[in-house]
Structures are given as C-alpha cells and as structure tokens.
Amino acid sequence: MQLIPSHSARPSDDPIFGLHQEAVARAAAGETILDATIGVLLDDSGKLAVLPTAAKAVHDVATIDFASYAPIAGNPEFLRATVADLLASQPDLATSAVAVATPGGSGAVRHAIVNFLEPGQALLTTSWYWSPYSTLADESDRRIETFEMFAPSGSIDVAAFDAALDRQLRSQGRALVILNDPAHNPTGYSMSDDDWRGVADRLSARAAQGPVTLLVDCAYLVYGASEDPRAFLRHLVPLLGKVMVLFAWSASKSFTLYGQRVGALIACTPDAKERESVRSALSYSCRGTWSNCNRGGMTALTRLLAHPESARSSAAERAELKRLLATRVATFNRCAKARGLVYPRYEGGFFVTVFVPRATEVAAAMRRAGVFVVPQTREDGKGALRLALCAVPEGQIKRLVDAIADSIS
C-alpha cells in the first residue's frame, strides 16, 4: 500500500452526491423518484433554475478573458465588486477588507481553516452543520468541534457557544468560529438580531483570552426571509480590532452559477499592517492549492455585480426565484405542522432539517419508497433528515412530508 495510512480508507465520493446519483439512476430506470438531496434550485418542472442575465454574462465573456490565466489572488475588479456587494452598507467593514478569489465558498472555508488554525487544532461550529466542514478540516489536518446549536427556546444557544469558545481558547490558545447564516445549511434557520447580538458580545469578551476569528459562511445570503439580508453586519462592526472577521462569499447560489466555481474569502481588520499580512498569506495559499481561479467566471461576475443594468436585471430574476422558494417554504410549514414534524424555525433558504430518531434507518426506509433525503446523526446519537426543498417541486412537498411522518410513526 503506497498511500499513507491516514488516507488509505477514505470514501471515494461525498455521501450527498452519492445519494443524488442513485436517485438519478433510479428515475432514469422508470421509478417515480422524489430527490430532496442536492443543493441546487430547480423550477417546478424539475429543471435547473438559472438566471438568464447570469447565463448571458457567462456567454458574453471574451475569448481572451476565459482563456488567459487570472492573477493568483483573483481579478482585482472582481475582488472589489465582491467586497462592495457584501459590505457596502457598512463602510467600516468595507474599508477594512481584503479579499482573494476562491473556487466557490468551499475554497473560502478551506483558506480560513489553514490560515487561522494550526495543524491539529479544531474549528468551532454549530452542532448541526454542513458535513463538508469536517472533510475540509480533516483534509488539512485540523479537526472540528461543535456547540449545541439550539436552546430550549429554539434560538441560538449563546451560553453553550460561550462555554465552547472558552474551552477552545483555554485548550488551544486560539479559535476559528464558523457560522453559516442566514438560511443555515442544513437547518434553514436564520439568526435573529438577538442571536447575533449575543454571539457578537461573547466573541468580543472572549477575544481577550487569545486570537479569535469569525468566519460567516453566507453562501445563502439572498435566500433568507429578511428584507435586508445584510442587516446582521451591523453587529460585527464593533468586533473590528478585536476579532478577525471573515466572510465566505459565493456566486453559486446567488447567481445560479454552481459550475463556474466562483467565490471569495473576504477578511476584515482595521490594522493596515495586519491586513497586508493577511492578504499575502491568503494569496500564498491560493498559489499553494489551486494556483488561479476561473478567470472567465470572475469576468462574468464582475459584470453582474458592477454593471448597473446587469445588476438590476439579475436582482429582478433572483427575486422571482426567491418567491418560488418562499412558496415551497410556506407549503412545507403548513404540511409539516399538520403532520407534527419537529424542526427549527424555517422562513427561507434551500434546506430544512427535521429532527427524527434513527435517522439512518428512516432515510433508508424512505429511499426504498423512492424518496431521497440526507440522514444526519450526531456523535451524541441525535438524528435528523436534511431536506433540499430547493430541488423539490411544490406539488411534491406533501409526499415528502408524508413519507417522513409515516416512516417515524
């Protein structure tokens, strides 16, 4: 065996994509399949929903722009546009920001892990989390630790977060906290003002114990229920100078350009010297992993973000998709409450998580009946099913809810 021992028994495929591939194969064989696994937005006919303006922007990229290498850190115009897109409403954050291009939000998470944790150390995130966080940590010889996400009230358990943050700072001298918000993957929960206020207060207080970094993975930013999805940013401004504030920005969901693999890691610190050190470290990591990102994709995204007419058109088209998703959310809430399903507050987003006992067994029984969901089982034995409502036509939601309720009754 030539592989190093720690890599010799790794799975060959992501479990979510494996379930999706099985669902596709069974549907092609003639079965009536309901596939609620994959995180892409489909229309009610089951076709991939793509913003027409975004598709046009990709097709209009000049040959020289898609054939040439991009700068290692990314096209400067693209990086300025991503910072403006996310942070323009908070000038203190925007003027403190540096950014590098990454292959989607996953690349941004990867860079955060390797640059703000030492090998062997653990990131801290919620007890329900996007499973590739664990893969990204393991691949870079880091670990993952969690805090109980929900208090009995249903809100974020700030006390559990504070205790876990304290333990980490005492044990490893630094902390990297990853919060996926708004429209959290996998639960669909969007943090409230009180949630953010409490978390920011604890981050500020604990920063005196050692270096603390917060990464907000905002891949689903535009699909939350809030009229102002960037409102939470005001709670982060007071952290500047105490906590390194990072954002994983992604074009995959916001612009329905999943396959272009365009994202960015944005880092905010008011200290100019530290800002340049961060910029250099992140650029070095780009060179040491993927070298450059998709220049054509960055060119298209720059147009969509910075060209007023393209920005207006894509925003209007996205609003239609958000209305489509909101209809599914409302239908799910109505059907799920009627069948007594237990799940977090869900007002918008691609996913929702239903808490069930024996999640793996329930998911397997549903799969035999042609209904595919993603089972989740925590180390403490608590289980849940992740449902990708983004991929489920509204007319199929009752079947999905009934399949869950019937399997656990």
Short summary of the structure?
The protein is an alpha/beta fold.
Give structural notes.
- The chain has 409 residues and is an alpha/beta fold.
- It has two domains: 5-51 and 312-408, Alpha-Beta Complex (Aspartate Aminotransferase, domain 1), CATH 3.90.1150.10; 68-309, Aspartate Aminotransferase, domain 2 (3-Layer(aba) Sandwich), CATH 3.40.640.
- It is built from 14 helices and twelve strands.
- The protein has helices at residues 15-28, 52-59, 63-67, 76-87, 91-94, 104-116, 132-139, 158-172, 193-206, 272-288, 295-306, 308-338, 359-368, 397-408, and strands spanning 34-35, 97-102, 122-126, 143-147, 175-180, 212-217, 244-250, 263-268, 351-355, 371-372, 374-377, 383-388.
- A seven-stranded mixed sheet has the order 2-8-7-6-5-3-4, sandwiched between helices. Strands 9-12-11 form a three-stranded antiparallel sheet. Strands 1-10 form a two-stranded parallel ribbon.
- α4 crosses α11 (295-306), α11 crosses α12 and α13 crosses α14.
- The model has no long low-confidence stretch (mean pLDDT 96).
